[in-house]
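User: My instructor asked us to take a sequence, write out its structure as tokens, and then describe one feature of it. I'm not sure where to start. Here is the sequence I was given:
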Amino acid sequence: MASRLTLSVLVDNNTFTDRYFSGEPGLSFLLETDEKKILFDTGYSDAFLANARNMGTDLLDLDYVILSHGHFDHTGGLVALIRHLAESKINHIPHQVPHLVAHPLCFCPRPRPPLPNTGSPLGEEEVRRQFPVNLSCSPVWITGDLVFLGEVPRRFAYERTDPGTRTILLPDGSTAPDFLLDDSALAFQSGAGLVIITGCSHAGICNIAEYAREVCGENRIVDIIGGFHLVGPSPEQLQGTCDYLRNAVPAAVHACHCTSLFAKITLSGACTLQETGVGLRLEY
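Assistant: Let's start with the prediction itself. The structure tokens for your sequence are:
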């Protein structure tokens, strides 16, 4: 029997009307299964901590922190989380140090002029000082029903994007165009099909969904929630995404964060698009 999953939106660009939370241009979800409590991304600041408190949880009993990719609007809150755990230790407040899971390139610096680094505020060495770390290109099963997908194959031509001025400083010291190979996602196997949970979908939302189906051996999709990285998509990418969703027939789609209003309006003609914002709580 499949376990249950509760997903709470801690950080998004938008907040729900008449819910008193803070929004910011970032993303963070709290996932609670029968077995584990997981923070997926940390947003840009400490807003995820304040929003979690307002939802009735203090995040001191996390089992895992899982990062979708290294950009600072998804990893910026790591500093606040480390401080939160350190203060709890100093004040003798019960807590546990979560395991951290990400792609091996997640903590590489990402200079993009005029900014010296658009990546994580912490390097891999410091992250390893603070957390037990598993950096993997391959899928990592967090529970029997929840998997971190690792590096996502780029299969659909309409989702292959030019890195432009984006660069990444690799562990060997060289600089390369940044194709954001660290961009990953989670897939949860519910009894009715997959729940696919994304950060920014730089790998392409269709590539992510197709790989989740392959890894999990399941074609049915219950929901896709997270950023779709459709801010200024080409007509080919937007049409390809709509065609994919029409064929996949997910029961619901919660596109948020880096998905433009125009893209959402267009997607709504191809799938059952639902409103998303800080304060949303979903159960599967």
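For the description part of your assignment, you could build on this observation: The chain has a mean pLDDT of 96. Try explaining in your own words what that tells you about the chain.
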